[in-house]
Amino acid sequence: TSNKAKWISINSFGRHTHSSSKPDSSVAAGCLGATGTAVLNCGNTYVFRLKNVKLGDLKNAKNLRFNFSGSADNFIRVKINGHEMDVKGNENGARPDGTQYSGWGLPGFSENSAFTADIKPGTVLYSDGNIIDIYIKSSPSHMGLIIENITLSYTMDRAYQKIHGSWAEYGIIAGGKAESASGAGLSSSFNGRENVTVRDYNKLTFANTPKFGNFSSSSLVPDNFTLPSVGGIKGNVSGVVATNNLVTGEYAAGNITLAGSRLDAGKSIVIKSTGTVRISGDLLYSDPGNARTLPQLIIYANNIIIDPSVSEVNAWLITPKDGYVSTCGAVLNMTHWLSGVSEASCGKQLRINGPIKAGHLFLRRTYGGKHASSAKNDPNMHPGTPAEIINLRADAYIWAYNNYRNTGAISTMNLRELPPRY
């Protein structure tokens, strides 16, 4: 390696720290003199982490290869974002195609030492914030990693050069930003939309961000929501709740979990939580038979989290302006709201029947999002297939009408004259 190579180890010399006061079990196992693949059975494993790796548009690469120029003592393997990579080491430059031992590469220590790491199917990449973990399997004598250079080579699937995204049947009006979504401008079949201009995919898409579409220094639309009154206050609920075990009425709660349940016809439940409501199972409605016995579930909480295993939610989902609704697990960082998302964890399609009012709506499902060609997949599952389907059905309006038709007139909350183009 050249003088620009960087040496990384547990100390300046890469020497093992075994001593009588701090014995290492691998030494006792006879690994001190081990050579070759015997090290894999008895050696120590060390992990070096590269954080905040930026890939930009390469997150959509069909194939991505990390080319490491450098050396390792002794064997090496790599994970990216927790996903195992296919690692091969060239054994002191002797084999450019690389070799592998039970998933471990052996790059060696010569001038031409190097190893490559290819992503495997199902690996999830991000624009930035990627994490690469380099595992070293070493005998107890010396250990270290020399990095001279890291490069990337890639190929892009043609399908990913076209545009897909979330869309609404008629239009989208957001109180803030509308990201990766449009008012029908991104609806597509398997092949996506090609050569779509900004003007095309912004049709019927209304954001409310400076300097366009914002008509006042402060919002003129009040951030309030009057919960429906149904059957009076019935008390508190806690822990794991099956909604069909409740009688019609209004319930207070803190942090609770709503288990899967089918709400009987004629029941109306309102849950107002001061914490987080987690939905762990499908929330369904029974067939009412007629409009007067429509069931309805209204959930108000600081945050509403839908577990990855859930496939259908029939409910109103309401949060304050600083709260969120997530369609797949908790969101720990709203800036990096896709962190932790993978096809394995969020690959199930979700259907929500009911209105949603939330400060942030995080659509984290990946169903249909990563397939090589339409011929290899179910024709109903492709990159243009929605991972989340959100329906504002007529039953919500009919139920609200039946619930309020004898309670007085509708009050106008706000009037605002808009310019010809919003």
What are the segments in which pLDDT stays under 50 over at least 5 consecutive residues?
372-377
Radius of gyration: 28 Å
Portion in helices: under 10%
Beta-sheet strand percentage?
Answer: 25-35%
Give the CA-based shape. Answer: elongated
Number of domains: 2
Count the E strands: 28
The number of helical segments is 5
Task: Please give the largest β-sheet.
Answer: 10 strands, parallel
Mean pLDDT across all amino acids: 82
**Strand-pairing-aware structural class:** mainly beta
Described by its quaternary structure, the protein is single chain
For the structure shown, list the relevant keywords.
elongated; five-stranded antiparallel sheet; 2 domains; ten-stranded parallel sheet; mainly beta; Jelly Rolls; 7% helix; 422 residues
